[in-house]
């Protein structure tokens, strides 16, 4: 069970940190505060404030291309969430809902390519397979 909680905490931390640079960051901050408020109301305001600080760090890291700083933040929040879940496993469904909601928000804001241009030249009996995204190849 501990390894499952650790995996969930890892996914949640990564999702929350990714959401920090999107319009969904306030929802992430609010939801994380509510999560803590359920079991540690005396710490909830501090967690919300620390998430605000984490957002500032994430934005600077992304602007500077500093993946190490982002990984450190994910690790920090992963450890916090793992400890929270180990002590309060009843929070698992709520955290899973938070992850699902934030992932939809982050995915909705991912930049989309306006167009894709692919060019290929073949000769003889060559076969070219090109894809701008998903591809399924079947022989028939």
Q: Your description of this structure?
A:
The protein is an all-alpha fold and 140 residues long. The chain has one domain (2-109). It has five helices and no strands. The protein has helices at 2-19, 25-39, 41-64, 67-87, 92-109. Helix 2 (25-39) packs antiparallel against helix 5. It starts with a helix and ends in a 31-residue tail after the last helix. The model is unreliable at 111-115 (pLDDT under 50).
* Parts with pLDDT < 50 across at least 5 consecutive residues: 111-115
Q: Describe the main β-sheet briefly.
A: none
Helix content: 55-70%
Q: Which range does the strand content fall in?
A: under 5%
Number of helical stretches of at least 4 residues:
5
Q: Rounded to an integer, what's the Rg over CA atoms?
A: 20 Å
What overall form do the CA principal axes indicate?
elongated
Number of domains: 1
The sequence of SSEs as H and E is HHHHH
Number of DSSP strands? 0
Instruction: Provide mean pLDDT, rounded.
Output: 84
Structural class by secondary-structure content? mainly alpha
Distance between the termini: 46 Å
Core attributes:
5 helices; 140 residues; mainly alpha
Write the layout of secondary structure elements.
Blueprint: H1 2-19, H2 25-39, H3 41-64, H4 67-87, H5 92-109
Give the structure's gist in a few sentences.
The protein is mostly helical and 140 residues long. The protein contains five helices and no strands.
